[in-house]
Amino acid sequence: MKESAPQGKRADEARKELASLLRSARLDRGLSGQELADILGWSQSKVSKIENGRTRPTADDAEAWLSACRAPEDVLRQSSELAEAALVESRHWRAVHARGLRSGQAGVRSLEQRAETVRSFQPSLVPGLLQTAEYARQVLSAVDLSGKGDVPEAVAARMRRQEVLYDPGRRFEFTLTEAALRWHPHDANLLAAQVDRLLSVSTLTNVVLRVLPLSSPFGHLQSNGFLLFEIPGDPTVIVETFTRELAITDPEEVGQYRDIHVVLTGHALDEAASRDHLRDFSASL
Fold this sequence. Notes:
51% helix
């Protein structure tokens, strides 16, 4: 998301402002919700959900809406900025951690509990849902920017998040690089227990865990990890950079991340071979 679009508004604020702008354009044109839906070839419920802020319109949706309402050019530009801001939220880690590390765990847990499928790719470390308590403690200690000293509480919250793995109604697809398996925050001695944890979780019927060895072609650039939450009607991708957390809900971008996960997973070892790789790695420690 561009820093200037729109004036640093957060996604929820931008969504509300966009919904108000679209509703005003419809009313100014003298169209009912059903009439606008007929012009656009949409259902009336889609129009209603967009105006009520329950559905994020894409930039194309907003442009089509305003074109049908013959809105002026400046309104079209404003809606484009708001649509982008509503679909991609960027937060600096200082803002993410402002209330401490534990509150951040609650936000991720909410996404996990709403998602039917969680797809994860990690090139640099073991994802939170698969971490042992000690691994999580060292990772969270390393990224604590708040100074609130709530690492123990955050670790406990991360461990509680892992309960979702045992819900057979949800599916989890983890793809990890060999480099992610070998990385450790401070102490390599924690890796043996961490590998045992991965092997244990990989036996769950609703969990797919695949390893992408360094010797295999990657098939795609893998400059950052990501989480894709397949939430009905509202799929969301979380990307972590060195300085920011990005929450992406733009359907086209989400689809691109979905495709990237397919490519990377396709180059990884199958599940049985991945477990063999983990056992071999464990024996070498």
